[in-house]
Amino acid sequence: MASSDDFSQRVRDCTDRLAAAGVDALGALYDLTAQRLVRFSVTITRNQHDAEDAVQATLVRVANRPALLAGADSPWAYLLQMVRNESLVILRRKRRSGAIATLTDLITRCRVDELEQEETHRAVWRALRALPQEQAEVVVLKIWESLTFAQISEILEASPNTVASRYQYAMSKLASKLTKVGQEGRHA
Question: CA 25, CA 21: separation in Å to the nearest integer?
């Protein structure tokens, strides 16, 4: 896995190309970031389709105003913030309309052929979705995005101590939930 700094630099390169070449360069940014952005958004929206909508809306904003992202000190962190904000807008809209999200809405596109790995993947996502949103988003940013607590605190606009605390609580809950799932699987 590439380091967080390498990935951030690749995002910076894409945003620079986008600012210079316009919307024609958006495809490279999408290819580089979409899967990671959707994964992050799912922790907030708890729904694959809503997460995809949040990412799409964010990228449309970027396409309309590429200088917004290119001018950011850290385009990757800024893009994550944009997706988070859009995800929260979608959540508020759904709450107002009274829609109820179900856990079965999360359909991950997993290229793994082995059934056991797919079941493990689903168990992890179910456990992650059972966490409070504030804890789940920290776990995704820390583990999958390899960000530091300082970087996460900037994205989430919370103190590093709060972020670290959320992470510790989340990891404890995840360990407990996944241990129970593992024990149930052995007894089945």
Answer: 6
